[in-house]
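Standup notes
- DV: blocked on the single-chain target, sequence here:
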Amino acid sequence: MLIIGLTGSIGMGKSTAAARIRALGVPVCDADSIVHKLYRTGGAAVGPIEAAFPGTAADDGCIDRQKLAAALLADPGAYTKLEAIVHPLVLETEREFIHMKAAKGAEKVVLEIPLLFETGGEKRVDVTIVVSAPADIQRSRVLERAGMTAEKYDQILSRQMPDEEKRRRADFVVDTSRSIPETEAQIDRIMSQLSGRTGTAFAKYWA
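- DV (later): unblocked, structure below
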């Protein structure tokens, strides 16, 4: 099995790339979606997060993301505490996903991880793909999102490796600054190049 890491800073087009990869028949595990589930009522992260950040759990038993964001904005150092809770749970879910797909005979899987390089996740995959766009396009995309502010955006960027460094480390770079069809064509070429390749990450880390 070949394990591919898909990453890129906020607003760079990971979702568009992941959608195309899924359309090509390759399973994708989205770390952000895992986190959303962990934050829902009954999610494994709710209790530990409420204990670490009192008042962030809503009455229905899910994590109020706005309250959590406010707590993190007030104390950026709290991200380390949050990551210590969430990352092991995400890794556990990713491992379950990989094993399930391996049992079904999948030749390739993709792990979509926003902070892949920041967390040393490149060691757990065979190939890395970075989606990238110029800073002005990135900023424009992100500030169009509901609830996003310039302050919040700058704080998010401060936690992410510079785009230039991610591109330097990547095995493949996808330029998402142009049209979606052009982005999809780049994805198609990369996945074609990876056809038939096998990796060692499964045996080394996930088995």
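- Follow-up: The chain is about 50% helix and 10% strand.
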